[in-house]
Automatic annotation (TrEMBL):
The keyword Flavoprotein is assigned to this record: no
GO BP annotations listed: amino acid biosynthetic process; carboxylic acid biosynthetic process
Sequence similarity: Belongs to the class-IV pyridoxal-phosphate-dependent aminotransferase family.
Cofactors that this protein relies on: pyridoxal 5'-phosphate
Protein name according to UniProt: Branched-chain amino acid aminotransferase
GO molecular function: transaminase activity
Species for this entry: Candidatus Chryseopegocella kryptomonas
Amino acid sequence: MKAKKLKIWSEQDYLNWVKQETALKEKYFAMYSTVWDAVVTNPNLMTIPFDDHMVHRGDGVFDNSLVVNGKVYLLEEHLDRIIRSATAIGIKIPLTKEQMREIILETIAITGKRDCIARFWISRGTGGFSVYPDESPRGHFYLIITSFPSYPARYYEEGLTVVTSPFPLRQPFTPQVKSCNYLSNAMMEFFAHNVGVDSAIAIDSEGYLTEGSNKNVAIVTKDKIFKYPRLEKILHGTMLKRAIHFANQLKEQGILKDVVSTDIPISEAYNSSEMMFFSTTLIVAPIVKYDGITIGDGKPGEIYRKLREMFKKDMTENDEVLTPVDYD
């Protein structure tokens, strides 16, 4: 009989492993789960049940909120979006919006971190390994507070290079669902990095721009029109929506001629004066080369610089979109 080589751990063996020091504590600060209805601060304990359908089927939704100087930016918008996403695919949400808000704010306070990011998920739930949603009696809510994401300074100072993705991004019936199934998104980035650029942009079946892998995209035409893809085709990015708000302010100031949601052919993007990405973690960053074609003069443009300053002010001074964390 062949000798068995796999260890069989006792509960004590597992507890000994949990107590080991981990470098992950430098970037993962705290996690809450409705599985336990408690918070843990040891990254070795930050786990999700393997029979949760979010794990083995990607059947769940997620969102993120930035914490800047002890205040959560656009928390209400992110909570509304995750609830819309979960509702759209019939997940039985385990908590109310008010309960989720309270848990997020209290967990941030537990960490003591004033600059970080709150990442949260609503899963289909536990119950088995099939694809059937009714296997899960209710969803679960998971939250983890992590270090503030960092991007290379050149993204903002010099701009990104991007390529058209050969992979379709979203199913036509789920553009507004921020789903955990990010295989296409991952393949977009895999393709971009393999061809030596920073990121990729997906197009729809008609050849119009849609989104980046986890970023919204917009252009500024040579006659100063801010254009973004039609919203029914893309995820309603919170940063894009905020950028539209700022762009309309620039229109009122006479800096932009118009702000338009429309189909954007690749050729129009090539000939634009500016292109930009928007996302919760990236915020706003200029695109200076697309499919090898230089955008504008190949440098971050005037509208990008103005939008970036408007975002900075909004994230630090506008109490209407900032939710304070009570650290006391």
